[in-house]
Write a structure and sequence with these properties.
The complex is a heterodimer of chains A (682) and B (489).
Chain A lengths: L1 H20 L3 H27 L5 E5 L7 E5 L1 H24 L6 H20 L3 H19 L5 H32 L7 H11 L14 H19 L8 H7 L2 H26 L4 H24 L3 H25 L5 H35 L4 H4 L7 H15 L5 H15 L4 H27 L5 H9 L6 H19 L1 H12 L7 H6 L7 H20 L15 H38 L17 H13 L9 H20 L1 H22 L1
Antiparallel strand pairs in A: 1-2
Helix pairs in contact in A: 1-2, 1-4, 2-3, 3-4, 3-10, 3-13, 3-19, 3-20, 4-5, 4-10, 5-6, 5-10, 6-8, 6-9, 8-10, 9-10, 9-12, 10-12, 10-13, 11-12, 11-17, 12-13, 12-16, 12-17, 13-15, 13-16, 13-19, 13-20, 15-17, 15-19, 16-19, 16-22, 17-22, 19-20, 24-25
Chain B lengths: L6 H16 L9 H21 L7 E5 L5 E4 L3 H24 L6 H20 L3 H19 L5 H31 L20 H16 L10 H4 L5 H28 L1 H4 L3 H23 L3 H20 L4 H32 L10 H4 L1 H15 L5 H16 L1 H30 L18 H19 L2 H10 L1
Antiparallel strand pairs in B: 1-2
Classes of the chains: A mainly alpha (682), B mainly alpha (489).
Chain lengths: 682, 489
């Protein structure tokens, strides 16, 4: 029952807030804060209960939405539910100051809280169908975030976001159809057994399970389709197109949530598919791994070339999703239950939690900058953070952690992933790409930090103005930014205290026993682990000081855009164009047939153009004779009247000749003649 | 004797319609209360018959054409679904029509024909054999023809002529299929599993199959099957209550229903499965889905876009039908019911926009969402439902169709999946682009023309809201209906 409350409470609060907001904006803001904080408190209580070994909660609602909704709350879901509700609580506290001068705030609050409910639904889902239902609701409600500003670029980004979400969602739905048809269930806990049965049949091709032969191709296709929609939401290449566009245009609290938690719900789906269907499947693992590497590298590259604060952070999100994907790939590559699988699982979970919190802090700081000076281009905001120590410290905690500097929480997660990649045998190439991308992360974070907090602006007047801003945030916003930053710092400083426990709790969801997770002890600060980190840092520093130190123009080519080059033309022009052409032809067939009939057998439309000249000398002759015999008293001639009559007769005659009935009459006459002939001859 | 009650719901609206023409009321042109009363009374009667199970039995004989050729009514499960659906929608649509037609001309003849159509559609639903079905099918063409012609404009004349040509031609084809069933079948009554189940002698199977295909396309005219679909978008010139009810529900669904009767109750699914006729019809059904959804994206006229959407969605029903399996039949009925609610809702929203704001084209809808919030909220809900998003009803029917297709397996199943995916994407584009325009206009759009536009009155809003509630509730909890369908299939 509690699980349902977790979902319904924010949704109910959303509607109440919307109604309340029409009367009093202040009351609405307070209610929204209370709603999210209460949600967060409830989640923390449930987390504590789970930590003490409380059993998993479960709620089944059979028959709802056709397939029945099933919710459950195990360790992993507790962890992620807590992260999600914490993020909502902080952003909604932060929103009060951020949205002071915004229009349509009521709409924002409505959809914000609805999205919270839907997101909780995704994370609490016990089967893929439930996850999908809430996932779709989440896509639609979060669309309003992106479109909030209603500027041209916001609208375009929002439409891209919606299109990707819908297309991805529909593809996932197809995958779910196929999966259900294949194994007859979508419940996560039942999937591994059934898939295992299918796999055991593969060496013996003529044995059937579940009423048919399931070939490997079909299994991979199904898994790929299901994962597709989730990957689109996570921002995995090549479905990432919406991400670098949508994050910068959304309001900062919304970007924090989009980047911190909505992408993770996509990762959640990929994890659910991988852990339950493809654990230990090398081919799947390799595919995920390479997708992850490409995402990681592309995102980092885009971030390096970006000259806008929020866009850099958005591209960074994409790159970090790539890191998480490599973790999932390493998990799938290694034998189920082996040490590398445990490492990969732990690394993946920690990286997810960690990245959520980092992006929460960083995007809110970007929000602080934006709400004060309404600019985000790096050249404009250069030097804004000077003499603002608390802001700088918070940003630094996030930046250090995301770059994986030893001593931060990011270091722990990255080390685990690095270990997992090495152990799972992914190969040297991937390992080095991993390290290089780590270096690139450091490079762009360094660029941001130095630009905003260290350098002075070229415009001295502006710099003075920046110095003058003392009360750039109120107490609430300060708390909202500081709390997650402090949590991050604590996590980094005491890795065994929090991070190990988090991993321990999450293990059942990832198909790993808690004992195996507990037994696996990693010395985070061992020499070989530190070496990897230092290689990354070295690469980052070299990149920064040699190349990107002086980059403040946009040198990234505009035309290099997957969306404009390929997707939009394909979906909006080529596909409907070709099929439209085919359709237009097929659509005309019957019309043409009818017209052909009318022109030939049914003769309603004359095929000859009437000439207009009439053969009327008969009328003239007759008129002349009549004029002689019976002349009119007034001396006028008979000829015009007769000509008219003859023309009318000729017209009628032509109609008769042309009509079907005339043909029929002729046929009838013919028949009668034949009849008479037969009768006579008989 | 109590079976004779089945005749009343068919004849009562027809008689009432004729009476409305003959007895000219003097003071008023027409009386809404009177018409609504007739329609509502009839609907209550139909629902009573369905719920009490009075209609289950021998059937009611109307008259005999020859000794073994009778016109009679019988209410079986399939008939109950269709009759129930029609009689639920008609009173609401009539209510909507009062407000929509308040400034129109020829209102009296409009409503009399509208009421007569109700009876004729019920006749199709309750027909006990193929002859009865055919007779009412032809009558449907004749009573709806003047409704298409209603506006008397050049365009309306052209559309109605087209409608007539297509329908009459189709009925002729259907007639041939009918004759073969009468001659070679064991009975002309509708029988679950078909009339050829005992085997056929004296005739080549291929000839029977050819006749089936002919009849399939003949009835397919009303179901707007490619290549005989052109009349439907053209007919959207008619007043919205007509296009919505007749061309999204009564007429096209009569076509689909007739095909269901033909396939499952006359020729029999087992007789047809895995023959060339099966594959040929399936291919054309899929082609129609692609055609409808593609053309809808390219269309910029609001109602015509919805008409194209109907073409593709009715073929979803037929896709269930051509699976030639009980699961397919269930899927077909589910979509038949749900699509009716979703499509009539979107058509009525479009009609409300035309009525209040006088906008006909999609590009004119910028920012109207704030002026007509309820209308566009309903439209958005129906858009999501048509796309097959949970928790709306469209999802359930799509789920059923795809499961039926997948358990069929083979090339047919895969093609069906791909085509449904494509169509769902196109549905998203053509439906949601309207919503986005209405609620989120680009920032520099001039919205002065929208001033003074508001939501329509209660007569229009009540049906809209009821439809949304129905397909949402059906989507969230559809178990009773699904159980009923499983019983009858």
């Amino acid at each position: 029952m509690l699980t349902a409350i977790l979902i319904l409470w924010p949704m109910a609060a959303a509607i109440i807030c919307f109604c309340l907001g029409r009367r009093s904006e202040k009351a609405r803001d307070i209610l929204a804060d209370i709603a999210t904080i209460a949600e967060c408190a409830l989640m923390i209580a449930l987390l504590a209960r789970s930590l003490q070994g409380g059993s998993d909660l479960y709620l089944g609602l059979p028959g709802l939405c056709g397939m029945g909704l099933n919710l459950t709350l195990d360790g992993f879901r507790c962890v992620y539910g807590t992260v999600a509700s914490l993020m909502w609580a902080t952003t909604s506290v932060f929103s009060r100051q951020y949205f002071t001068y915004y229009a349509n705030r009521n709409r924002y609050y409505l959809f914000n809280l609805l999205t919270l409910g839907a997101t909780m639904g995704v994370f609490l889902a016990a089967d893929l169908f439930t996850a999908f239902v809430f996932f779709e609701i989440m896509s639609f409600t979060s669309f309003v975030w992106v479109a909030h500003d209603e500027t041209g670029s916001a609208m375009k980004a929002a439409c891209t976001y919606l299109a990707v979400a819908i297309i991805g969602g529909l593809i996932t739905l197809m995958g779910l159809f196929m999966l259900y048809n294949m194994i007859g269930t979508l419940t996560l806990s039942e999937i591994p057994v059934r898939i295992e049965e299918i796999r055991q049949v593969w060496p013996r091709p003529f044995v059937t399970v579940y009423g048919g032969i399931v070939t490997p191709t079909r299994l991979y296709l199904t898994g790929g389709l299901v994962a597709c929609g989730f990957a689109a939401k996570a921002g995995v290449w090549p479905l990432h197109i919406w991400l670098p566009k949508a994050h910068p245009v959304a309001p900062a609290p919304a970007s924090a949530l989009l980047s911190g938690i909505l992408t993770k719900s996509g990762i959640f789906g990929i994890l659910a598919v991988t852990c339950n269907m493809f654990a230990g499947d090398a081919a799947w693992g390799r595919a995920i791994m390479w997708l992850g590497v490409i995402t990681m590298f592309t995102g980092a590259l885009l971030a390096l070339f970006s000259i806008n604060l929020k866009r850099t952070l958005a591209c960074s999100s994409m790159s970090q999703i790539g890191f998480i994907m490599t973790g999932i790939g390493a998990y799938a590559l290694s034998q189920p239950g082996s040490e590398s699988a445990v490492l990969a699982a732990r690394g993946t979970v920690l990286y997810m939690v960690n990245h959520s919190l980092i992006k929460l802090v960083l995007f809110m700081i970007a929000g602080v900058v934006y709400m004060n000076i309404h600019k985000l281009e790096l050249a404009d905001i250069r030097g804004y953070g000077r003499r603002k120590p608390l802001l700088a410290v918070c940003f630094a905690i996030g930046a250090l952690s995301i770059s994986g500097i030893p001593g931060s929480s990011g270091y722990i997660a990255k080390t685990l992933l690095h270990e997992a990649i090495v152990e799972s045998g992914a190969g040297r190439v991937i390992e080095w790409l991993f390290l290089v991308c780590g270096g690139m992360t450091l490079c762009y974070m360094l660029k941001l930090f130095i630009t905003v907090f260290a350098e002075k602006n070229h415009d001295d007047e502006l710099q003075k103005q920046y110095y003058g801003q003392k009360d750039y945030w109120n107490a609430e916003s300060r708390i909202a930014v500081t709390v997650p930053a402090v949590i991050l710092a604590v996590m980094g400083l005491f890795p065994y205290l929090i991070m190990n426990r988090t991993a321990y709790m999450s293990s059942p969801f990832l198909g790993i026993t808690r004992d195996a997770m507990g037994e696996c002890v990693v010395v985070y600060y061992a020499v070989h682990n530190l070496t990897g980190s230092f290689i990354s840092i070295a690469i980052g520093l070299v990149l920064f000081f040699l190349i990107f130190r002086r980059l403040d123009r946009n040198v990234w080519p505009e035309w290099l855009d997957l969306e404009d080059r390929i997707y939009r033309p394909l979906i909006l022009k080529i596909l409907p164009g070709i099929l439209g052409f085919v359709s237009a032809i097929t659509g005309q067939i019957t019309d043409e047939a009818i017209i052909l009939l009318r022109r030939t057998t049914h003769r309603q439309i004359s095929t000859r153009v009437p000439t207009g000249s009439m053969d009327d000398h008969l009328a003239v002759e007759a008129g002349m004779i009549l004029d002689h015999i019976l002349p009119h008293r007034d001396g006028s001639s008979h000829i015009p009247v007769l000509v008219e009559k003859e023309e009318r007769a000729a017209r009628t005659q032509r109609v008769i000749y042309g009509s079907l009935s005339f043909g029929l009459i002729l046929v009838c006459i013919g028949l009668i003649l034949v009849l008479i002939y037969t009768l006579a001859s008989a | 004797m109590d079976q004779q009650i089945l005749i009343i719901p068919v004849l009562f609206p027809i008689m009432a319609g004729i009476a409305m023409i003959i007895f000219k009321p003097k003071a008023k042109v027409y009386s809404p209360l009177f018409i609504e009363g007739i329609v509502l009374l009839n609907s209550i009667l139909v629902w009573t018959v369905i719920l009490t199970g009075m209609g289950r039995g021998e059937g009611a004989l109307l008259f005999r054409l020859t000794y073994d050729l009778s016109v009679y009514f019988k209410l079986d499960g399939a008939g109950m679904v269709f009759a129930g659906l029609v009689s639920f929608l008609w009173p609401l649509a009539t209510l909507y029509a009062f407000e929509y037609m308040e400034h129109g001309e020829h209102i009296r003849s409009f409503f009399s024909l509208y009421t007569m159509t109700y009876g004729v559609t019920l006749g199709i639903a309750m027909a006990g054999n193929l002859v009865t079905l055919y007779m009412f099918y032809e009558m449907l063409t004749l009573v709806t023809f003047p409704l298409v012609l209603h506006d008397r404009t050049r365009e309306a004349r052209r559309a109605s002529r087209m409608y007539l040509y297509y329908s009459i031609g189709g009925a002729a084809c259907a007639f041939m299929g009918l004759v073969f069933v009468l001659i070679y079948g064991s009975t002309s009554d509708f029988t679950q599993g078909g009339v050829f189940s005992g085997g056929v002698r004296n005739v080549d199977h291929n000839i029977l199959l050819a006749m089936y295909v002919l009849a399939f396309f003949g009835f397919g005219v009303k179901a707007a099957l490619v290549p005989v679909q052109k009349w439907l978008p053209a007919a959207s010139v008619a007043p919205t209550p007509v296009t919505a009810l007749l061309h999204a529900v009564a007429v096209v669904k009569s076509g689909a229903f007739a095909i269901i009767r033909l396939t499952y109750y006359s020729y029999g699914a087992d007789f047809l499965r895995n023959t060339w006729a099966h594959y040929l019809t399936a291919a054309f059904v899929m082609l129609t889905i692609v055609y409808g959804s593609t053309m809808a994206v390219k269309e910029i006229h609001f109602k015509k876009r919805l008409a194209y959407s109907t073409i593709s969605n009715v073929s979803y029903i037929l896709l269930g039908v051509v699976m030639m399996s009980p699961a397919g039949l269930i899927a077909a009925f589910t979509h038949l019911v749900f699509h009716a609610f979703m499509k009539i809702c979107s058509f009525f929203s479009a009609g409300a926009v035309m009525h209040r704001a006088d906008r006909n084209y999609i590009y004119e809808l910028d920012g109207l969402g704030y002026q007509m919030p309820v209308t566009f909220a309903c439209f958005t809900a129906s858009a999501l439902a048509l796309m097959g998003m949970p928790p709306f009803a469209g999802f359930i029917s799509k789920w059923n169709i795809v499961q039926a297709a997948l358990s069929e397996g083979g090339v047919l199943g895969i093609c069906a999946i791909v085509i449904i995916l494509y169509s769902a994407l196109m549905t998203a584009i053509y439906m949601l682009s309207v919503t986005v325009r209405a609620f989120l206009p680009a920032k520099d759009t001039v919205l002065t023309a929208n001033e003074g536009v508001s939501d329509p009155g209660w007569k229009m809003l009540v049906p809209l809201v009821i439809f949304v509630i129905v397909f949402t509730v059906m989507g969230i909890y559809s178990k009773p209906l699904m159980q009923f369908l499983e019983e009858i299939c």
